[in-house]
Structures are given as C-alpha cells and as structure tokens.
Amino acid sequence: MTGARAVLRADILVVGSGLAGLRAALAARAADPGLDVLVASPLSGPSGSSFANRNDCLGMQVPDPDDADFDAEVLRLSAPGFADPALVRLLRLEARARLDDLLGLGLDFRRASDGSLERLPGCFSTAPRAVVFSGLSRAHALFRGAAEAAGVRFLDGLAARELVSAEGRAAGARFLDRDGAERVVAARAVVLAAGGPAPLFPHAMCGPGNDGLSHGLLDRAGARVANAGFVQFFWNDAATGRFVQPGSALRPGAVLHGPRGGLSLEPGHPALAHAGERARHCPAGYGLPDAALDELLLDHADAEGLVRLTTAEGLELRLVFCAHAGNGGAVVDADGMTTVPGLFACGECATGMHGANRLGGGMVLATQVFGERAGRAAARLASGRSDPPVSAFGGLPPLSPPETPAQAERVRRGMRRHCLFGPRPGLAGFVRELEDMARTSALAGSALVLALALLARA
Ligand SMILES: Cc1cc2nc3c(=O)[nH]c(=O)nc-3n(C[C@H](O)[C@H](O)[C@H](O)COP(=O)(O)OP(=O)(O)OC[C@H]3O[C@@H](n4cnc5c(N)ncnc54)[C@H](O)[C@@H]3O)c2cc1C
Known about the structure:
Blueprint: E1 7-15, H1 19-31, E2 37-41, H2 48-51, E3 57-61, H3 68-78, H4 85-105, E4 108-109, E5 130-134, H5 136-149, E6 153-156, E7 159-166, E8 169-176, E9 182-192, H6 214-220, E10 225-226, E11 231-237, H7 246-249, E12 255-256, E13 263-264, H8 275-278, H9 291-299, E14 306-310, E15 316-326, E16 329-331, E17 343-345, E18 350-351, H10 362-383, H11 391-394, H12 405-418, H13 427-437, H14 442-457
Parallel strand pairs: 1-2, 1-9, 2-6, 9-17, 16-18
Antiparallel strand pairs: 3-5, 4-5, 7-8, 8-9, 10-16, 11-15, 12-13, 12-14, 14-15
C-alpha cells in the first residue's frame, strides 16, 4: 500500500491481450520462466481486432528470408510516412519462425489440395506471400491457453488510463476497473499492446475491448509517436457493413449524389483512370494517385459521413468510410522498446516496420515478430532490474473519470469531420478544442495526437 492506493506488482506488465500482447507475454515467460508476467485488459474473451474482428480470419505476410523485394515493397508503400529499413528487414528474417509458432499452437490455416499452406497476395501487392488462418475465437482460446499453461497471469476487466514512469523509466500503469475504481500495477518493464486508434472514429471495424487510447497513453508517457495520422479506411455499405471496392463501384454511368448536387460519371473523368490500381487494395492509399477515387467519394459525403451512390447497374448504395486499423504508434527499436526506457510497444500501437500504407497481412506479421522481440527484451530487462520505487505511485492525483457520452460523441464527430483520411477543413479549430478537453479526457488526449499529426501535414 502507498497512502490509500493499493499497488499490485508484476515483473512484466503487458497491457492488452490481442495477438501482440499474448505473443509478448508468451515470449517473456519462455525467455525467463521465473518472471511474473501479468496481462491486463478489459475482456477475458476474444477482444480487439486480432481475435474478434468480423471477418473471422486473418492474413499474415510470410516472405522468404531472402526475398528482398518484400523490403522494397514495404518501404515504397511507407511514403509519405516514416519507416525504418532495419525493422522491415527483421519482419522478413523472422516471419518463418513466427509462422512456425502459430502452426505449433494449432491455428487453423488455409491449405491447398496438396496440404501445403495456401499463399495469396495481400492488399497493395501481387506477390503471393500471405497465409490465412480462420476461427479467431478458437485462435484466442489457443493463445490464452498456451499463455496460462506457461504461467502467465491474467487480470481481466481493466482498462489502462495512464502509463507511469519513475526515475526516467517505465514503472507500471494505472487502470480503471469495471466499477470505475482505480487499480495500479507496478512493474519492472511494461509492454503496451493495446491496439490502434480506429475506435476514435464513429465508424470503425475493429473488435471489442479497445477504447482507442494507445496513442494518447504513449504520448503522455513521453514516448515518441510517428505515423499517427495514417489510419486505414475502408468503404463499407452502411446497411450491411460489406466492403465496397471503389475501383469497381465508380465506373462510367455511376451517379454520386450529395449535399452539393449530383455527379454523373462520364468515361473521361480523371479519377476513373486509376480504377484499376485502386481495385488492388481495400484500404484507401495515402499518397497514391488512386486515392483520387476516395477523395471523389469523400467530396459527396453528407454531414453524417454517408455517400449515396447509384451504380452503373442502377444499384442504390449508401457508403460509409470506416476506420480499419492504424499504421502509426510508438517509434521502437529492434527490441520493440519505445523512446522511454523500459516501455515497449508492439502490434498496432507501434510503427516503423510499416509507414503510411501497409501490405495486407503485414500487421499480423508485425504483432508476432515485434511481440516476440518486445517480450524477450522485456524479460532481459526485468531480470536484471529492481522493482520501481513505491514513491512513483504514492503522490499521483486521482485518475480522471472516463469520458461522458457527450464528450465521446464530440470527439468522434470531430474526428470524422476533420481527420478522415488526411487533414480536413476546420482541423486547427478542432485541435484547439481537443487541447482543452484533453486536460481531463484520455480519449481526447489520444485524438489530439492523431489530429496534431494531421495538422502538421495540412
Ligand atoms: C476487420 C479487420 C480485418 C483485418 N484483417 C487483417 C489481416 O487480414 N491481416 C493483417 O495483418 N491485419 C488485419 N487487420 C488488422 C489487425 O487485425 C490488427 O491491426 C491487429 O490484430 C492488431 O493486433 P494488436 O494485438 O496490436 O491489437 P488488438 O488485437 O486490437 O488487441 C488490443 C488489445 O488491447 C486491449 N486494450 C485496448 N485498449 C486497452 C486499454 N486502454 N487498456 C487495456 N487493454 C486495452 C484490447 O481489449 C485487446 O485485448 C484487420 C483488422 C480488422 C478490423
């Protein structure tokens, strides 16, 4: 106990139990079975985009170790964002080993008729490097079962609201539990694996249990964050949630309706010249000429973000641009360590192994390669380190309560109006509003990181 605040202890605290967090926890225990590894997250069942996404399957890039074209593709796609060639190389060199881990766990991979793993191209690529597994709930049970068998402890029902540092290094985190009470965990090393920023937007595709706070948590802890403004968006049918490919839906004869009048697409419309390239990837691509089709759709969105479209075949569609996954996060080294000593980040809250755009299947690979690396490095660090000073937690002011529904609505509406696929008009005013709200709202703090990244590009 420190003052009135009870402090739980662990050697390594992992925040989040998606593919990245569970891989990190498994790797830490494997590296040093004597360490107390604690995973804290809001839900005990499948959560996040890893284990509860609506597709019930995930692709994973698995390049050959000598496939240098992989690095070239990843780095080309990373513009206009930031990527670190050394991290990209690690993805390539360690993909096979991490695939072996997943096969060893018993995940259900798609196979060709001869029993070999089926290989497909991921978005933005024509090279068939990606493998696919399905049954995400089962995948979660296998991962969690393996972690429990390895001695990893789980604390469910906790949402991190703040990372704590002491004497210049990560010292733990503060959480709110389901009843709104504060819980504190002190640790020798902390791995943030809390997923990405998609929930900051009103229309998001990510799985449950993610409050979208990871960028704000990192930023407040003093970690360098990059690529925050590069969030992937998909056009989905508002009624069914099904993905609609702009490269197919926008053809001569289609009509875009909108608050500023309709547009009948003629054969020579300049955006249509890019329809073929756009059809090769589901998310809109930053800095790519084929983003002209996405901008055309965005130009016809109403105040709620809906785009009404009549296809060339006469089909009436209402489309909405949905946040899928973020490509930004903490800048990390080869061990997954952020610029704060002892604070690691992996999965969708780390960046540099991809930049503005990412190969389809690249994030699952990143969760496994850098989850493993972060877990092992956290174990090395924790083995040789003493507990953080209790004084780190004694004098902290009470945590702010969670956002009110009205605040959360204000943040999400603003994100849609000003931060959808790049900086939009009115962003500077929204940033000022967020700065004010961020004093008490962790959600606004996280949105602010993303909005500021976009403002820098405006
Ligand atoms: C529909 C869909 C399909 C996708 N398909 C692919 C694909 O085929 N290939 C690919 O590479 N990528 C794909 N992605 C992206 C990919 O699934 C995710 O980026 C990846 O799974 C992220 O893993 P993660 O472990 O970092 O985060 P998540 O899986 O999102 O897990 C985050 C964890 O952190 C917890 N958490 C969140 N906030 C807090 C908090 N404040 N405190 C404590 N815990 C918290 C969550 O509950 C969860 O346990 C897809 C995404 C979606 C939405």
